[in-house]
Amino acid sequence: MSNDKHTPPGNGKPVLSTAPDVLAGRGRRTVHLGDLLFGGSARASSLIIVVVVLIIGAFLLGNAWQPLLDNTANFFASTTFDASSRPPHFGVAALLWTTVLSSLIALLIAVPVAVGIALLLTQYVGGRVSRWIGFVIDLLAAVPSVIFGLWGIKVLGPALQPVAHWIQAHLGWFPLFGSTQVTSPGTVFTASLVLALMILPIITAVTRDVFSQTPREQIEAALALGATRWEVIRMAVLPYGRSGATAAAMLGLGRALGETIAVMLILSASSFDVSVFSGGETFASVIARNAAEFDTTYKAGIYISAGLVLFVLTFAVNALARIVAERGKAKS
User: Fold this and answer.
1) Over the chain (332 residues), what is each successive 10-residue block's mean pLDDT?
2) Cα(111)–Cα(207) distance, rounded to whole angstroms?
3) CATH match of 95-294+317-330 with 2.102.10.10
4) Full-prediction pTM beyond 0.90?
5) What's the pLDDT score for residue 192?
6) Which residues have CB under 8 Å from 196's CB, separation 6+?
7) What job does the chain carry out (predicted)?
8) N or C: which end of the chain has fewer CB within 10 A?
9) Cα 285 from Cα 259, distance rounded (Å)
10) Which of left, alpha, beta for 87 (phi over 0: left; psi -120 to 50: alpha)?
């Protein structure tokens, strides 16, 4: 009797059994040369990015190591950054404050505007109107940083001075809005508004894409239950896109932290002050402003130490944005 057939009880029809070699054939997957090449190139590309980041970090640390060892000031607490003294006396407290403060204010201004524009484009208007508005917002990303800087110091800054005086008159009791000796428009307040315009396109683009992917079934179900347009946004769109909007905000923050030319053109050099109506320096602007002093490896290493802090800070912000986005995908 053949092993390839068997007759079940009550049924005289033979049933073919699955041979082991057929099962093995079904379990095997044909591997094509193109798949191998594409997979290998993708892995190599990701490995190259990791290696480049490690090389940059090693370069910054290697050049900043000796000046940091010779530094006579508290690197993280001192507000003095003097690269000309020997031994060097420099700290990043003032740079860190100005960098983080201007970036956070820019984020507080840009995120609500970006979310509002994204909701407008995905939930209220559509078709040609939505495309044109999105096109205009995206054009802001094509404006060079130097143009933003010149416009900020020549046009926006003087226009904002009456607003700054009003805020100082009514909220000057709070140190963040206190009066300073800086009378020029080159303040952290002006730089923050310019940074808000610069990071607006990237936050808007990412948030718009996230909101547009809200499942249509959820929106239609809410409308069928009698929900208004705002209730649909509050109950369906915003919960679905919360993690994506948060990640977009973090990416915008990383962009603001590293901005150089616009901030350098706007900010006036001054002594350290916590007020937003004072001048100051950011990590990127102090490096760019003093690039002519990189005549020796040792002096360049002092400024590279500031770049090392900015590198770690920006890397941490972008990593956090990635983590938030991945958690949002897992929940959805």
Assistant:
1) 50 51 54 81 90 91 90 87 83 91 93 91 80 83 89 91 88 84 84 93 89 83 81 84 86 88 88 86 88 83 90 86 70 58
2) 10
3) no
4) no
5) 94
6) 105, 106, 107, 109, 110, 113
7) Part of the binding-protein-dependent transport system for phosphate; probably responsible for the translocation of the substrate across the membrane.
8) N
9) 8
10) beta
Alpha carbons 177 and 157: distance in angstroms, whole number: 16
Q: What's the chain look like in SS3?
A: CCCCEECCCCCCCCEECCCHHHHHHHHCCCCCHHHHHHHHHHHHHHHHHHHHHHHHHHHHHHHHHHHHHHCCCCCCCCCCEECCCCCCEECCHHHHHHHHHHHHHHHHHHHHHHHHHHHHHHHHCCHHHHHHHHHHHHHHHHCCHHHHHHHHHHHHHHHHHHHHHHHHHHHCCCHHHCCCCCCCCCCHHHHHHHHHHHHHHHHHHHHHHHHHCCCHHHHHHHHHCCCCHHHHHHHHHHHHHHHHHHHHHHHHHHHHHCCCHHHHHHCCCCCCCCCCCCCCCCHHHHHHHCHHHCCCHHHHHHHHHHHHHHHHHHHHHHHHHHHHHHHHHHHC
